[in-house]
Amino acid sequence: MMVSLSKALIQVRRREIGPLIGTLEGLFSLVGPYVVLLVVWEGVRWILRPDPRFLPDVADVVRAIGRILENGILIDYLSRSLMRIGLAALFTVPVAILVGIGIGLSGAIARFLLPLIRFFNSIPAIAWLPLFIIWLGFNDRTIILDASYGLFFPVAFNTIVGVQTVPRVFRDAILTMGGSWGHLIRDVILPGALPAILTGVRTGFAYAWRGLIAAEMIVATNGLGYLIFQAQTMVLADRIIAGMILIGLTWSILDYFILQPLEEATVMRWGLMQR
Question: Looking at the structure, do residues 18 and 116 belong to the same domain, yes or no?
């Protein structure tokens, strides 16, 4: 009797502690890698004893972030960068998906164009920046175009691959039963290709963000990329690292709170994933 009671109490305690343990594990998986990074950072400084002008310590970088916040430039620079990536996405993602679906529907056209798309996909957006500057000059259009290039090809490529993976029999079935091409795309092609499309969107956004930051370093007079470039001209290593941290945090927040939930919600909408 006492043994059974003890087992019941243990099971109740496990049920009570289980959610707490899960929360702690999730928190550790989120924060733990950054704690390790900080420890390695300080360990390298302790071993090498570098000049703080070239490799500042964690406290110096935290103070640099504080100064950026006090100056009031962070909100302005951050909003400019987000506006540019938003405009690039607004025009590029729909076009890339439509182009990918159009190419993917034809096996012959896809086989013909995929090598070319892979070729352009392998060229980083920053490599195009000098040519974009010649075409458009030093302005926001050049930065947005550079980000759009980084975004377009991963989305288009993954859309083509996703469309090509939809079994041919499904396409033939809906057309045989009198369905239109609109029904085919909406009810068969898009749901089947959706996982690949969303993977392309997330990957493309990462490439676009890199291209945007690089373009801002060269072209812009504001933005997070310009923040780093400006600090480099004044030999402020702590501010450069602070800018890098802010860039990484901004992207991590965008991906974690917007892109990842959007991907999960959209895939669940089509019944391809269950909670």
Answer: no
